[in-house]
Amino acid sequence: MTLGEKDENQRALDIYNVLRRRRFALLLDDIWEKVDLKVIGVPYPTRDNGCKVAFTTRSRDVCGRMGVDDPMEVSCLQPEESWDLFQRTVGENTLRSHPDIPELARKVARKCRGLPLAVNVIGETMASKRTVHEWCHAVEVLTSSATEFSGMEDEVLPVLKYSYDNLSGEMVRSCFLYCSLFPEDYHIDKERLVEYWICEGFLSEKESREKTLNQGYEIIGTLVRACLLMEERKDKTDVKMHDVVREMALWISSDLGNEKERCIVRARVGLHEVPQVKNWNIVRKMSLMNNEIEDIVGISHACDELTTLFLQKNELVKISGEFFRCMPHLVVLDLSENHSLENLPE
Predict the structure, then answer these.
(1) Which DSSP category does 96 fall into?
(2) Which positions make up the signal peptide (predicted)?
(3) Which residues form the domain of 99?
(4) Is residue 195, in this structure, part of any structural domain at all?
């Protein structure tokens, strides 16, 4: 009888009988739930038997459940480390093919934000690019819509999506995707974020307000422990999202890139007017925050699906009385920090 033909209990017993007589080191790679060593036939490592079990995971919750003695957090690469890896991946021949390419290459490398997976994939894509025009185009694409960069949708985003897929429940996933509405490197105030989630209906309002807020903070903690959000400041009042994780969230929000107008995020990109949209009927979320928009012109079509519209931190002066009539399901409208905006339509 082969190992594959035996039942799980017998296989576990066979593994145990082999390992119990030996000193061993076992590596469990990329695990997403607690692994019971006894169930799979692995003797528990102790100082006496000299055995070691190591594992990799993207979830801090899994670390806690596994009873880790000495956790080691692998952070993103430092800027110079990222640049060194990018140079090795691209190759000297390409970097020396034109005197302007090294500086452009540094800009491309910075867009990877120290994520080794992105550095490798983007570096491999650029290894054959030996004209300044190609490198300038790469910088432009990575700045405006990184999901359109060669290799991102096939090799980078699907790998990161495992973290999203392993979130517990649609509510937590919806809360995570909402965080992508903010600009790159933006410090998101936790309390305000939870308020947005409540307005969107992600969190139940049947309980007391205190319980609902606590639930929101628990979800933020879940996302931090899943390494999908990062706590930046000492007082831990804010969170932020890694740029590549943000691109992954936007990709998911647009139905894996198939409906890009479902979630329109043009935050902090220097806009002076509302961008053109082909089909306003499918837009569900729109973020135009941190721009230089003075007048709302262009949102006069029926926006039947729109529930969130971020317009904070612009230069708005006035808003037409017709503005709100085309958005019957709008539940979140942020107009804060438009200092020249004095009146709203009745």
Answers:
(1) T
(2) none
(3) 79-144
(4) yes
